[in-house]
Every structure is written in structure tokens, then in C-alpha cells.
């Protein structure tokens, strides 16, 4: 029953929970046929939506905690209380992770040509400033990938096939089931 409940957790929540507090830079790999501004805008939208949704769910779960604590007087394990406690903590972590991602992706947005910077230019700039923690570049790195273009070109306009998703997951060491579950949830 616990595994069935955990399988209902959205993959976006798992992504946001996995973002550490110490994260200073985000590397974004995308098909080179797409516009980096569009990618950054979509990532900002996902992070903003995640922070709003998970904050609301956190407050909703926290309100339910006192109601489920009533079951503590029963001689049985208080599964509802611990489940709501776990979900509260999970939504809190997801809200903090999405806020961190939103801060990273929206930082330094005043510079008009940020999307033109390449991965190599940013890495050489950060290597020359090894002593300083704050580099002059943005906290994101865009990495256009020709390999992703080749994998995606074989699919139709309706979306990616499961074979293409499997190839992408193998290339980037992703869990195929989580990616398919995320695609199905959209």
C-alpha cells in the first residue's frame, strides 16, 4: 500500500525535492533546434508553478496534521498521521527546491544577451575567477545538444516515442519510468 501511495507522487515534486540548498549553477541540456530563451522561460514557469502549488499543498497538509493526531489514542499505528506528516515535509522540500530553481533561473535577467553565452565561454570565465565564489556569468549554463536533435528528429509532432525516451534516459542516466510517468501527467 505504501509503494502504491508513493507511486502517485508527481515526478516534478521528486525533481524539486532533489534540488540542494547549496546549488549555485544549473546546467540545462536541450535540443539545439530550440531557442534557449524559450527553454529558460519554460523552466521559470515550471519552477514558479511548483513553488505556488507545493506551498499550497504544504499548508493544506499542515492543517490536516492536528485532525489526524486524534488517531494517536487508538492502539493501532497512526498511519494517517505519519502519511500527512511525510507529505507536509515532502511538499515543504519541494516548495523550497522550486524557489531555489526559480531564483537561479531568474537571476541576472537584466542582461539582454544572456542566452547567447555558450557553455565553453562560461567555463573559461569561471576557471579564470577560481578564487571568487561569485562569477560574472549567470547561474545557468545552456548546453545545446546535437545528439538530442538526432533522437528527436525521428519522432512525429505528437510527442516522443517510448523508444526515444529510453535512448534519452540512457544517455543522461535518467530513470525511464519517472520520465514516462512525467510525460503521462502532462
TrEMBL record:
Gene Ontology cellular-component annotations: mitochondrial inner membrane
Record bears the keyword Membrane: yes
InterPro entries: Mit_KHE1
Highest taxon of source: Eukaryota
Keywords: Membrane, Transmembrane, Transmembrane helix
Annotated stretches, region: Disordered: 113-140
Bilayer-spanning residue ranges: 57-86
A Pfam family matched in the record: Mit_KHE1
GO biological process, one term: potassium ion transport
UniProt keyword annotation of Transmembrane present: yes
Name under which the protein is recorded: Uncharacterized protein LOC111401485
Taxonomic lineage from the root: Eukaryota, Viridiplantae, Streptophyta, Embryophyta, Tracheophyta
Amino acid at each position: 500500500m505504501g509503494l502504491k501511495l508513493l507511486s502517485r507522487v508527481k515526478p516534478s515534486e521528486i525533481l524539486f525535492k532533489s534540488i540542494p540548498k547549496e546549488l549555485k549553477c544549473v546546467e540545462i541540456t536541450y535540443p539545439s533546434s530550440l531557442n534557449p530563451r524559450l527553454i529558460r522561460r519554460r523552466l521559470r514557469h515550471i519552477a514558479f508553478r511548483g513553488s505556488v502549488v507545493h506551498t499550497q499543498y504544504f499548508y493544506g497538509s499542515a492543517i490536516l496534521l492536528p485532525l489526524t493526531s486524534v488517531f494517536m489514542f487508538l492502539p493501532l499505528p497512526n498511519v494517517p498521521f505519519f502519511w500527512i506528516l511525510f507529505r507536509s515535509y515532502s511538499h515543504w522540500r519541494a516548495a523550497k527546491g522550486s524557489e531555489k530553481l526559480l531564483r537561479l533561473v531568474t537571476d541576472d535577467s537584466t542582461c539582454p544577451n544572456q542566452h547567447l553565452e555558450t557553455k565553453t565561454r562560461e567555463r573559461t570565465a569561471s576557471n579564470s575567477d577560481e578564487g571568487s565564489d561569485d562569477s560574472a556569468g549567470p547561474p545557468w549554463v545552456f548546453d545545446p545538444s546535437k545528439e538530442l536533435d538526432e533522437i528527436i528528429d525521428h519522432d512525429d509532432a505528437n510527442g516522443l516515442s517510448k523508444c526515444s525516451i529510453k535512448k534519452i534516459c540512457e544517455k543522461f542516466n535518467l530513470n525511464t519510468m519517472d520520465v514516462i510517468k512525467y510525460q503521462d501527467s502532462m
